[in-house]
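Continuing the series of single-chain predictions for the mutant panel. This is the parent chain; the variants come on the following pages.
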Amino acid sequence: MRSRFAVAVAAALLFAPPALFAQARQPRVTVIYGSLLGADGAPMKVANVQLLALRPSPVAQATATRTGHFAIATTEAGLFLVRFTGVDHASASIPLVLEPPTTVAVDVRLATFAYTDSLERVSAVGDWNAFAPATATPLVRQPDGRYTLEVPTTADTLAYQLLGLDASSGGRTLINGPQVGAYALDDRGHYRTIIRAQSGHGTIVLDPTQLDRRPSELSVTFRDPNSLAARQYALNLQWDRVRQEYFDTAKARAQRHDTTGFDWAPAVARLSAALGHERNPILRQILLLHMLDAAQFGATVQRPVAQRIVAEVRPGSFLWRDPIRTPWMIQQAFQIAQGDTADAADSGASRVTLAYLDSVIAEQPDTQVKGLALFSAFRLARRAKDPIQTNEYYTRLVTDFPDLAFTRLVKSQMAPGRAWRVGAEAPAFHFTALDDTGVIYTPTTFAGRVYLLDFWATWCAPCRAQMPFLQRAYDSLTARGLVILSVSLDQSPADVRRFRAGQWKMPWLNANVPGGSDIAQMQQLEINILPRVMLIGKDGRILAVDDERLRGDALLPTLRRALEQQTSP
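Parent structure:
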């Protein structure tokens, strides 16, 4: 009933003049309205707006009118993503905290796709293979310069998407073809092109001259620049730029093979200044969590700021629903706030963090956030070597949240017969080398060597964040005998090659397992979430699995100690 009511409100307001909004607004309803246009300022062939939360289906959605206007409504409160999509354009998502009743007026111009210069690797998925990238079919270049694919079908229409065409994502994004037809939005915010089929087949045609390669940028303009939505967007946009600058610096440092770090002082100073005059409680929390983000990456955060984080970012905060954050982060704030540098089971920071996480589990309404907080509590109790609490959190997780990806990971870490457990022999595996398909890596390949097994993918942000630390370990310890094998779960080896050519060279050993976690070998090895990292000793026995000491700045000293212990008499 509530969703039908919200849709009705949105439909009624779509064509209403702004002056009527104050009269038309119903109690406890948020309305988001405005324009959604293409890069040229004109309406797109098809455009949609979706209000997303932590659930499979949108909270609200609407198709833009022929003039490019839209309106959606909701009676719910919380942190949402407003996703804007349009045919032939890259989608854009804006995080917004909504507390009905309110109105948000925003005008958006999407950027066109950044098409790749090389079309030789473009392939298609569609009705014939259930849109599975692992079995994408390559398009064939014709003498006239077009690329085509004939697909047998008994239906009257054929729906398809193209893979390898969007350069900004390294070709990983499935996007609509420029061929004239109808369009349907999939559940990931990408469009499918639907063409007519005749005589038992459909013909997919990619004409390079139809690709709009003019440079363009995303434009988001809130009509009230002082509104909560506008200010929240500005804060997040600024912070995204700081994060990107940090990652760019880390990448350059690794490529130069030096120790020059990112200077966090200016960013922390700006955050501190903003906190000094900000009075809105939601915006203060956002600034405080940005400060906590900085601390995760090595910034120095003063004790009074950490005390504000634990005091103001409450367990029930909407902001813990942001996918880029995890309640696990709060432990560092407690450590700084208490001046606690210990990492033992009885440390004060560990105890208050577990209490905080218990409150998150009790107060958050979203299953995903509850499950993530419970998973975080499990990890903390396990790291603190508290078997009673570890087992308690494990039981709650597998009983109350059996379908979450984190639960599958926990089972792979705790089940008695799990594939990877410290002290046991590494399970049998066979991975084809990325650079030479005639080479197969197995445990025998590394007999008598200490090696790090890294399961990752180019689309996995935490995996990419580990690259500087893997590079540092490779540079420092290869001469001492360390071997690194990165096993990609990307659907295509070409994705990994493009990543290595354009972002990280990854000069260590590499393999690719097309099909990812769905294939039998990955399921047997319990690779159901990324990243997963294992350290194996010279005798083939597992030294560490998914350990915090195998991540970030802790990786290098951990590997150095392992090499010393393995070579000592």
